[in-house]
Design a protein that fits this description.
hpI Integrase, Chain A; 13 helices; 4% strand; 2 domains; DNA polymerase, domain 1; mainly alpha
Length: 301
Amino acid sequence: MRNDLSDGMDDLADQYINYLRVERGLADNTVQAYSRDLNRFFQFLESHSLSPLKVTQNRISEYVSMIGNGLSARSVARNVSAIKMFFRFLAAEGKIKCSPARLLESQRLSRRLPGTLTPGEVERLISQPDLSNPKGQRDRAMLEILYATGLRVSELVSLELLNINLEAGYLRTLGKGSKERVVPMGEKAMKAVKEYLSNGRPHLTRGNNSSYLFPNLRGRPMTRQGFWKIIKKCGRQAGIKKNITPHILRHSFASHLLEGGADLRAVQVMLGHADISTTQIYTHVTRERLKELHEKCHPRP
């Protein structure tokens, strides 16, 4: 049964979510995650008959300690981030004088080095689709684009025909926060896309006038799960023992560029990272590989 406290929380949550979408420009997945985190926090407050406008720092700390017993460190860190941002929003809107979460320590996570493939493994993976049939041509084009551009899988499956410029050799994509970026494609990716557009796509669309580059039979874009199954299958066929995911090609794209001498800021732009510190994790990967090479090849490691 609804009560004034519940209704008030729902109203605050709606305002906050709108703020995240419109003013902060956060991606839908991030907004949905923050919304779930806030709902969990509100359930805690409601169980103690507390309003978000009157909760104390001690109560918030109690909540963080409580969820720390059941959630991963990464989930707790995201919950803390969502709560801190929520109370900053309330303070900025004049609903509270100052944030009771302002002294709440953000959870520091050890940054895991992303898994990558060697150039040889990438070649084996990309060569798996059977180019004698339309689906194989589509799959090869998708793999080539992913490795050539470092797109996120969500960006790959949402590409439209107008996003591709085969004459100039680049594509446009909307990343997190609906921020557009332009990324060069490379000759091999362009060749695979041309082959797919000329021969594969017409058979797969069956006359459907879809605007998407990789549509399903209903003209809608392929799902992320659909492509995940494709890359997993190619990984098995290639005999690669690593955990093959769409993101591993994005990681490999960045690592291989840096290993080849690319500028860190150029890689940041191509990946669509808002903060260069996110891109810098790939420099750790290259350093680790140099260390392994040194230990393996130096006469006095």
